[in-house]
């Protein structure tokens, strides 16, 4: 198992317990960003992901101690 800090931005907070903005999660080693988004049921709503402030593809693997930020599609008008 590895530990990552997950930050959900904007309306993605609805996928975390009690709609918190961030939480620390223990996940299996080898988990990819896409796997974690899927486990949170947020895969269809994530537009951009970054690990330690660097934009990464959804296929990027997560490492112990990583800080993952997930961003929704921005809307405006």
Task: Summarize the structure in words.
The protein is mainly β and about 80 residues long. It has one domain: Roll (Ubiquitin-like (UB roll)). Helix content is about 10%, strand content about 35%. The protein has one helix at about 35-40, and strands at about 1-10, 20-25, 45-50, 55, 65-70. A 5-stranded mixed β-sheet has the order 2-1-5-3-4, covered by helices on one side. Strand 3 (about 45-50) and strand 4 (about 55) form a beta hairpin. It is globular. The model has no long low-confidence stretch (mean pLDDT about 95).
List the main descriptive attributes of the protein structure presented here.
77 residues, mainly beta, Ubiquitin-like (UB roll)
């Amino acid at each position: 198992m590895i530990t990552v800090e997950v930050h959900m931005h904007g309306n993605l907070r609805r996928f975390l317990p009690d709609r918190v903005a961030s939480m620390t999660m223990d996940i299996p080693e080898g988990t990819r960003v896409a796997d974690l988004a899927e486990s949170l049921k947020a895969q269809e709503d994530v537009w951009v992901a970054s690990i330690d402030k660097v934009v990464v593809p959804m296929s990027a693997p997560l490492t112990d101690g990583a800080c993952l930020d997930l961003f929704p599609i921005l809307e405006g008008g």
